[in-house]
Amino acid sequence: MSAMRRIGVIGGMSWYSTAEYYRVINERVQERRGGHHSADLLVHSLDFSGIRQCQVDRDWERAGAIMRASADGLVGAGAELVVLATNLMHKAAGAIEDGLGVPFLHIADAVAQESARLGTRRIGLLGARPVLEDGFYAERLSRHGIDTVVPGAAARDRLDEIIFGELTVGEVRPESSAALQAAVRELAGAGAQAVALACTELELALTQADAALPLIATARTHARAAADLSLSPTPHTTNGTLVAT
C-alpha cells in the first residue's frame, strides 16, 4: 500500500464548508483504504471577516498574500498537497500556485474532471458575483474545453444576497432554496447540461433532489479529488491538471 500524502487545506471561507471538506476527505480515504484509516490532513482555518473585507474592497492582491502565507505555513508543517476550500478565493489562486513547491489542486480543474465524467461540455455556474462575472473561473474551465453559462443580472444579485447574507453565516431560508431552484431552471433554459454549485456553501441549500439538471457539488468534488491525489502513487499533470492514478 502506497504512502498517503499529507493534505493542507486553506479553509475558513466559510468554516461551514471547510467542515464539509474535512468530512468528505476523511470519508473518501476510509472508503478507499478501509478499516480505521483516515486522512493525513492539516487545516488552516482563516478568520473569514478579514477575507470578506478583501472581497468587498476587491483587494485581490492582499487576499492573495494572505492565501500564499497560509499555503506556505501548511507546506512548512509538512503538507505535500494544498487545496483552497472556497471557489471565490481561487481568483487569487495564482499567488498560491506560483513557486509553491508542492502540488496545488485548483477547484475548477476538479470540476472539469467531474464534468467530463458526466459527459457534459456546457455547464451553468451558480456562485458569488466575482465567480460569475470576473472570468477567472470560466477561463480555467475553458482550458478543458468546457463552455459556461451564468444566470441573468437579477439572479446574480439574489445569489450574492443568499451567499453572504445567509449561507456563510449558517442560515438557509426556504425562499432562498426556491430562488436557487429557479436559477437552475434558468440555466437549463440557456442550454446548460449540468450546473456547478460554484460557491461551496450552496451545497448546504440545494440538493440533487431539488434540481432539474445534474449538480456538481464543488466542495465535495474538490475534496474527493484531493483525497484521491493524496492516495495516488504517481499523480501526474495532464493539460495542466493534476490527475490521480
From TrEMBL:
Superkingdom classification of source: Bacteria
Name of one Pfam family that matches: Asp_Glu_race
Q: Which Gene3D superfamilies match?
A: 3.40.50.1860
Give the keywords, sorted. Isomerase
Please give one Gene Ontology molecular function term for this protein: amino-acid racemase activity
**Family note:** Belongs to the aspartate/glutamate racemases family.
Q: Which PANTHER family match?
A: ASPARTATE-GLUTAMATE RACEMASE FAMILY, GLUTAMATE RACEMASE
Q: What is this protein called?
A: Aspartate racemase
Query: Which species is listed as the source?
Result: Pseudonocardia kunmingensis
